[in-house]
């Protein structure tokens, strides 16, 4: 089916069902309204002011929101009602709406905004929740608008989904955010994190622990728990293999895709909506049609691709046959080298190290590749996520700079382990064909930190202190696996300390270990401290870890931010009160101006409309000030939520969840001193 094209472009869509003889498709436009399309109730009329029934399209209703819609979903929020509710999120509010009775279920203000929304049950929370993700925060509301769930995440939320991630029969919350991470929450506890290469724009539960995802660069893929099955750039694909099973083209970009029983015949359809308002529905293919879902042009493309692969394989086979004949007939010479033949014992060596850089090149990690004989390296292809633009990098030395070794600078932007997939072309200078070595090296998580000598004058004042039940030798193993230590590094038994310098900003990192198992991490970077603790917890299988921490400079900056938040809240309340007063005055002036017109007192009418003009101008200026104030408030609230999340990442397990909950309670009660005590020692009590 195809829907009429609308001038306003849809931003998202959902399906309303679970009610006899009714199925609707709400479509959020970029403007301040939601179109509700219901082909099964063409004679229905609404009386309340929130919904407008179009006289031209009797199956399309218009829900006026009066704010820009940022997210939309539908589902059973109140099981006692037995049918779906419509959830509409904006940057300041969340509306739960009963479409069938044309009434609000609740209307809540959300300070952190609503960028994404999902509806369902979470963990052990019995009632369904409308969970919204906004400015580094997650909130869940029941059908009465009660706030039953709250936690923080690492960055602005862009996508949400509910999925039984660990197979325990209860749903976990999947969160995709601007920092390229997919986080899995078991209620308010993070149980897994996966790092991608771009912003996660969409998450889709499939079945069991399997879920799909999409990135802002067009990449789509499938995870099963933390294992990624496949990923590729976009169509309808098999969740097991990534194989294209169906493809269709729209004249404009896709705004949303959903599954629903549009025809109400018991068979769900795939419904797609474009940004131009075009809607198409697709039935699932039958077993007989399974091999004919692809159109002719796609089949031709597939045949062409397979033919090219066949030619490449035949060429490769012929090269192998010629090389085998040459090796059996005569000893190796330069002529054989031109055909890509190299000594059978040729090996490729790789080494990772730290390069402190020089005047013309910044400090970086370095990958050195060399051969075991006089063969040369003609080119190197590196495939790695999150390091290179386009996820790949090619090094192709000029003919005058060919040698048996090559060094490649690598600068990972984040502290995460990265697999480097290498394809190295090896041969002789006169070679026209080359032998390709394929291998994989892992770049350690903290590869952008160089081991240096301790300097007491530069030792950071900020620290994290904790105790673990591990031998010092195990800590040394962790250091070797996560840092690029020189080969001649000899770390003695505890007590000992190691000092590193960041290649990004020159910051200092000290790690001190005592015989008692007490570890102190000195760094002014609270994110780095959290990364180190989470890395240690994973390596040593630590389930719960409480720490003592102090970051004087960061906490002082946070104190200033909290003061600004209070100021912005005060300004917001003052501006809101002024706008309410001006609105009342406008109504009064309109009545008085109309009275003057009826009495033919043109002078008084003109004066009243002049006053209205001035008042309207003041309202517009006040609105601009309020918008700027709201933007600043959101920025500062994001910093507060990130601070809570960072304080949580300094702990593991239950202490982490306790810190996040206690921090929120301290902010609610506006007790700043208690907030900083919680961040330092993990508890509000003395």
Automatic annotation (TrEMBL):
Residues 449-540 form the BBS2 platform domain. Keywords: Cell membrane, Cell projection, Cilium, Coiled coil, Cytoplasm, Cytoskeleton, Membrane. One of its GO terms (biological process) is non-motile cilium assembly. Residues 361-446 form the BBS2 GAE domain. Residues 159-236 form the Ciliary BBSome complex subunit 2 middle region domain. Residues 303-330 form a coiled coil. It is found in: Cell projection, Cilium membrane; Cytoplasm, Cytoskeleton, Microtubule organizing center, Centrosome, Centriolar satellite; Cytoplasm, Cytoskeleton. This is Bardet-Biedl syndrome 2 protein homolog. It comes from Canis lupus familiaris. The gene is BBS2.
């Amino acid at each position: 089916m195809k829907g009429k094209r609308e001038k306003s472009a849809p931003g998202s869509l959902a399906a309303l069902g679970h009610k006899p003889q009714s199925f609707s498709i709400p479509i959020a436009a970029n403007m301040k309204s939601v179109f509700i399309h219901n082909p099964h109730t063409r004679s229905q009329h609404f009386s309340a002011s929130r919904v407008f029934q179009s006289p031209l399209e009797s199956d399309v209703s218009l829900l006026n929101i009066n704010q820009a819609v940022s997210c939309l979903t539908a589902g059973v929020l109140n099981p006692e009602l037995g049918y779906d509710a419509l959830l509409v999120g904006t940057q300041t509010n969340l509306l739960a709406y009963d479409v069938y009775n044309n009434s609000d279920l609740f209307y809540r203000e959300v300070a952190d905004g609503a960028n994404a929304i999902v509806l369902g049950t979470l963990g052990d929370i019995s009632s369904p929740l409308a969970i919204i993700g906004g400015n580094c925060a997650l909130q869940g509301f029941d059908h009465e608008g009660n706030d039953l769930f709250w936690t923080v995440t690492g960055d602005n939320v862009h996508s949400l989904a509910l999925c039984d991630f660990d197979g325990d029969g209860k749903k976990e919350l999947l969160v995709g955010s601007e920092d390229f991470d997919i986080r899995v929450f078991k209620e308010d506890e993070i149980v897994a994190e996966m790092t991608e290469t771009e912003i996660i724009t969409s998450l889709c539960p499939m079945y069991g622990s399997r879920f799909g995802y999409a990135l802002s660069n067009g990449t789509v893929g499938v995870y099963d728990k933390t294992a990624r099955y496949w990923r590729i750039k976009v169509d309808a694909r098999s969740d097991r293999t990534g194989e294209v099973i169906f493809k269709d083209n729209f004249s404009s970009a896709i705004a949303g895709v959903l599954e629903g029983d549009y025809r109400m015949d018991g068979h769900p359809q795939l419904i797609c909506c474009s940004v131009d308002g075009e809607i198409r529905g697709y039935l699932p293919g039958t077993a007989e049609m399974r091999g004919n879902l692809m159109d002719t042009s796609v089949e031709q493309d597939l045949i062409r691709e397979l033919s090219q692969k066949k030619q490449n394989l035949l060429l490769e086979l012929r090269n192998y046959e010629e090389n085998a004949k040459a090796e059996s007939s005569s000893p190796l010479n330069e002529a054989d080298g031109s055909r890509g033949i190299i000594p059978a014992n040729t090996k490729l060596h790789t080494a990772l190290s730290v390069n402190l850089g020089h005047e013309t090149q910044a400090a970086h990690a370095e990958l050195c590749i060399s051969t075991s004989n006089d063969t040369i390296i003609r080119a190197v292809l590196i495939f790695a996520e999150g390091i290179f633009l386009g996820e790949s990098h090619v090094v192709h030395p000029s003919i005058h700079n060919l040698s048996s070794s090559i060094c490649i600078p690598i600068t990972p932007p984040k502290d995460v382990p990265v697999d480097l997939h290498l394809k190295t072309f090896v041969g002789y200078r006169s070679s026209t064909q080359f032998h390709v070595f394929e291998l994989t090296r892992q770049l350690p998580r903290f590869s952008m930190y160089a081991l240096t000598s301790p300097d007491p004058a530069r030792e950071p004042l900020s620290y994290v202190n904790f105790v673990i039940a591990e031998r010092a030798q195990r800590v040394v193993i962790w250091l070797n696996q996560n840092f690029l230590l020189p080969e001649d590094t000899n770390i003695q038994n505890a007590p000992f300390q190691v000092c590193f310098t960041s290649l990004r900003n020159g910051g200092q990192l000290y790690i001190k270990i005592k015989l008692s198992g007490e570890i102190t991490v000195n760094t002014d970077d609270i994110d780095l401290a959290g990364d180190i603790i989470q890395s240690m917890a994973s390596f040593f299988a630590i389930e719960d870890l409480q720490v003592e921490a102090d970051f004087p400079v960061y906490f002082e900056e946070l104190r200033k931010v909290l003061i600004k938040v209070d100021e912005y809240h005060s300004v917001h309340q003052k501006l809101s009160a002024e706008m309410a007063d001006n609105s009342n005055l406008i109504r009064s002036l309109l009545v008085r101006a109309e009275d003057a017109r009826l009495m033919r007192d043109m002078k008084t009418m003109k004066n009243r409309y002049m006053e209205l003009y001035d008042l309207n101008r003041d309202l517009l200026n006040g609105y601009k000030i309020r918008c700027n104030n709201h933007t600043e408030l959101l920025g500062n609230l994001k910093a507060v939520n990130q601070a809570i999340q960072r304080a949580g990442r300094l702990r593991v397990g239950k202490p982490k969840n306790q810190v996040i909950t206690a921090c929120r309670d301290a902010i609610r009660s506006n007790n700043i001193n208690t907030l900083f005590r919680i961040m330092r020692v993990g508890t509000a009590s003395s």
